[in-house]
Amino acid sequence: MASTAEQWQLLENGNIKGKSKEMTKHGRRTAHNMSSSSLRKKSDLSMVSKVPCGILRRLLANFQEVILGTKLSVLFPAIPLAILAHCYGFGRPWIFGLSLLGLTPLAERVSFLTEQIAFYTGPTVGGLLNATCGNATELIIALLALIQHKVDVVKYSLLGSIISNLLLVLGTSLFCGGLANLNREQKFERKQADVNSLLLMLALLCHMLPIMFRYAGKSDSATAEVTLLLSRVCSVVMLVAYLAYLVFQLWTHRQLFEAPEEKDEESDTVISEEEPVIGFWSGFAWLIGMTSVIALLSEYVVGTIEDASESWGLSVSFISIILLPIVGNAAEHAGAIIFAFKNKLDISLGVALGSATQIALFVVPLSVVFAWIIGVKMDLDFNLTETGSLALSIIVTAFTLQDGTSHYMKGLVLLLCYIVIGASFFVTQSPTNQSNGVNLGIHSSA
């Protein structure tokens, strides 16, 4: 007898069972997909199946799968509350906080919907969807902030996402996984980690050159335009590298990025992904709708971040670099930690390193190019403290992963590095879009 999920698929799409099996056989499950699935739960459609009206029955089934099919569904009420707070002029810090909470389940649901669509489009198109929508929240916040000429918010939030993935997510995963598996040797595949580390080094070089060029110049005014031009060239180079990375990941070396199959059959923890649970057009419509809501909440976040900073007594840099990435990526972060507990470090590393690489080589340069198109001067000069934090994060992570083994001490060191970096931005109260008050001793010889 067909399962309830299959019945809804047959109602909406006809017989797609053969295609689902083909997708399972020839498709690929990435670490990001499997990490997100750890927060999902199976939906009981027995009550919905008793609804006599076919259209209403399908709508309720989709609603239950999309809205109630995640353990983060308790955060969905924050979305209408944020909208009401904005419409009725509540305190802007409340709008900021509610919008952040609302973005948390939306980010996980976008990952779920892209994976559902991939069942119908095939693994390659599905991989491209995941490559562009994997960090949709960060990208939308960055583009909306650029439209409002808030370049600092863009730089802070994207930098914070990279550092958060490398130190907080990876550190917590290694630390928790090490404590949960004290009597077992923890190993992971180094090949994928080496590729991501190499690409992150390229991104770091593109970030280092503009700031080094600025300090090597005679004055900021003389080097500003050249630094901007250099940043745009570096951004184009990073986008080319990201396209090559997609070819490498989706075609030529696909096996390096395929996550191991989840063999733990806990029905209340992980949903079996052998077949889709919603139809193609339903998934596409939900994806458009949720992306629109993410854009709305992101606009609230960008518009109220200064008020939240003033009300909470925290600098904009601390909120953007520390709070935004933690809340915005909470879903995939939690998934990475869950799989680390199960000693599946390849999945945890795939989430942390893959997300950091995507932001560094795709979201950051795309933001620079988008700013170029709309006439906003955004460069890759993230100032000395920010660029130094990024450099040390990438270097420490590369050293941590060099031997292909892990234990809780490695995770603890990464976490402590993140705490130190967070403390440095916590005590920073002055805006860092101004030139650093350091000339590195270069100008003194002139």
Characterise this structure.
- The chain is mainly alpha-helical and 446 residues long.
- It contains 17 helices and 2 strands.
- Helix 9 packs parallel to helix 14 (330-341).
- The N and C termini lie far apart (83 Å).
- The model is unreliable at 1-27, 264-273 and 430-446 (pLDDT under 50).
Tell me how many strands there are: 2
- Count of helical segments? 17
Q: What is the 3D shape?
A: globular
- Spans of at least 5 consecutive residues with low confidence: 1-27, 264-273, 430-446
Taking the alpha carbons of the first and last residues, their distance comes to 83 Å
Structural class: mainly alpha
Strand order within the widest sheet?
A: 1-2
Biggest sheet statistics: 2 strands, antiparallel
Gyration radius over CA: 22 Å
Mean pLDDT: 79
**Order of H and E elements:** HHHHHHHHHEHHHHHHHEH
Helix content: over 70%
Strand content: under 5%
Quick structural summary:
71% of the residues lie in helices and 1% in strands. The chain is mainly alpha-helical and 446 residues long.
Write the layout of secondary structure elements.
Layout: H1 4-13, H2 17-26, H3 31-37, H4 54-66, H5 78-87, H6 92-121, H7 123-133, H8 136-147, H9 151-180, E1 186-187, H10 190-216, H11 220-252, H12 280-312, H13 316-328, H14 330-341, H15 345-374, H16 384-400, E2 405-406, H17 408-426
